[in-house]
Amino acid sequence: MTGQNGVFFDDAQLCVDQVIERVGKQITLGLPLGLGKPLRFANALYERAKSDPEIQLHIVTALSLLAPQGGSSLEKRFLDPFVRRLYGSIPELAYARDVMANRLPANVRVSEFFFKAGSYLNNRSQQQNYVCTNYTHAVRDLMAQGVNVVGQLVAPGEPHGYPGMVSLSCNPDLSLDILPELRAREQQGVPVATVAEVNTKLPWFGHDAAIAADQFDMFLASADTEYPLFSAPQMAISPADHLIGFYASSLLKDGGTLQVGIGALGASLVHNAILRHKHNDEWRAVYDHLDVASRFPVAEACGGTGRFEEGLYGCSEMMVDGFLYLLQEGILKREVFDDADLQDLINRTLISQTPSLMMLDTLVQEGIIASPLRARDLRWLVKYGILKDSVELKGGCLHFGEGSVADADLSLEQTRELLEREGLGDRLRGGILMHGGFYVGPEAFYQALRELPPEQRDKICMTSVNFINHLYDHRFGNQRLKAAQRVHGRFINSTMMYTINGAAVSDGLDDGRVVSGVGGQYNFVSMAHELPGARSILALRATRVSGGEVVSNIVFNYAHCTIARHLRDIVITEYGIADLRGQPDEEVILRLIRIADSRFQAGLLKQAKKAGKVRADFRLPPEWQGNTPSSVRTALSFAGEGDWFPPFPFGRDFTDEELRLGKALKGLKAGTATPRGKLVTLLQALKVKDESGRYAALIERMGLTNPGDMKARLDRKLVIYGLQQLDPKPTEDEKSSDAS
């Protein structure tokens, strides 16, 4: 049917018909990053292209989400029940699955500017079609690809009291800027189509994310579009991750600004910030044991150790679920306002959040309002809650709700008495605690967003990534406003490797293959160098396992970089903090070696000396040489009794059985990473038995209780062997006791 704001469909095929009628069969489809893809419409259009070779379909997007599929038979047995439980009711993104399987038809091409990390390393078509761009340039580059159709998942306004509106909710990041660009293209005579797929399970967010429904040409809404949202399960936080997050939490400035990314390192930071705020004694015990203040002075100079009394403000391209936990724990509580003059006065502590006569005097002294008040002054004061809505200005006099009247001259005693008694508001209003560009997370996060009280929901502004990720003027705020809001910015992101001359390797490999993408990392790093008092913090684990061997992530050099060395700032591993900004090369190298795993420090130092970058007589100080995994566990233990650093502080989607099986399979994968390891593991597994039925429940979970063929029988033995490796090894006394 035809409605006020466009054409409504309850059938995706009819919607596709209308799109083709409008733009023809040369279609470049722009889809949001991550969660906001309209799955029913996207699948219907893709299936139409598969069945009609005359259609030329080019999909341009980022982060196409798919449920995981195991590679080996054991991985499949482990994942299949989990995937059915979490994703069984969610439509699968058909083009993305075909991309993974290398079975796209010849008339369909998919270009992405950001991948799920590692998902397309061995996919030639995606490596070739990858578009390298900063997040803030994505709209420009998508338009350059010739986008003529945009699809978006939206939340309807009617159930929330906003008829004629829709919320871009999880993805206003690019859509707020690409929709006007598309309309401009339409004005030039190019046929375009905008399609909104309606899903009431999508949390409603207002402010910038709420737009007029007539910005879309078509709506797809039916029972089929009411599917659950794609969830990203919580990842386990290892002891190393916890200590990285601990160090990062010591760099947070009370009253500051926070940006943080997804993953275990981001979750660890949030957990440690909460620990610092709620259980400060335990947090301080670890801080003191590590002697952070003297070993890493930047923490004391730029961070803090106390509770977050003023609180933090979130400004992050991705609103991770951690921001919700910070809100719930009373840490995310520093409000910012969309007026630079007002924000500046708050920053300078010339005014508070509570309206008063002194606040009015300050506003007059600073030239923000005049006395006597003008109409525009009153509108401004009412907008921010400084004066009540009932106050009116008529004929040069202020009229109050109780019928009282006074001159608009704020210096007159009668006016001041009436203002204090009847005119002042209770608290500044319009403040925002969180600016986010997009979100994706676990189902519990989505549910919590749906259940937010109105007053908390109104403190979250989902908005354009071009407002968030750089300082240039934008229609939602200029450079002065952004700088005023983002005081003491801490922009915290992860990287894969870091060279000892200060370059970060975050998105690709030295053979040119793309692991993920630049995303917004460059934006935040560069912004940290522009904003007064801001710091960029790049976090990484000191080591990784590659080919069955432990290797260092702090490297001498690498033939690819994401962040160039002239932007080096703060780097964190589980072994400490390297403050690199403004330091000479030798000092940069030594500070990075200091936080490297001790198994690799001597080799890195030797390479640096050979290159002439470190003086020949330098020797590793003994206190640097204790960077071992056991020292990490020891440090965390100083928090005292209790599980202060759990692997899943914010809940989990895996069952206890699945967690244990996951550890066993991870051990098997590591043990079979080399040909020799594979042979040894197989030989050992062939010997194992479980005659007592100790692992019966776990074997049943893997579907191996009654293995039907040789492969299944071998899988069963491998699982038992992997589980046995998790069991504590008996002591010599226990062995002797068993023998007797």
TrEMBL record:
It holds the Pfam family AcetylCoA_hyd_C. InterPro entries: AcetylCoA_hyd_C, AcetylCoA_hyd_C_sf, ActCoA_hydro, NagB/RpiA_transferase-like. Keywords: Hydrolase. GO terms for biological process: acetate metabolic process. One of its GO terms (molecular function) is hydrolase activity. Residues 441-608 form the Acetyl-CoA hydrolase/transferase C-terminal domain. The keyword Transmembrane does not apply. This is Acetyl-CoA hydrolase. It comes from Marinobacter fuscus.
